[in-house]
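Fig. S4 source data, part A: sequence.
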Amino acid sequence: MKEEKMLKKVVKGVLFYWIIFVSISWVTFWVKGSVPDTLIQIGLGGGAFELLCSTIIEVAHKKFEGDNTNE
């Protein structure tokens, strides 16, 4: 079996983090009766920033290293 690329692991990790985070936020809303707006904004924004950085790294890697499909 081929080893999974690091970028795919990061994306899956962020997706898992978002699902858990949103679930906990919903439970907090149901228990407390209010939405933790700042916590949600920072939590989801951090995951989006991680994906943005991963994308930039992957694009830069392909640009500077070149696509080795001809070898």
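Fig. S4 source data, part B ends here. The chain is about 80% helix and 0% strand.
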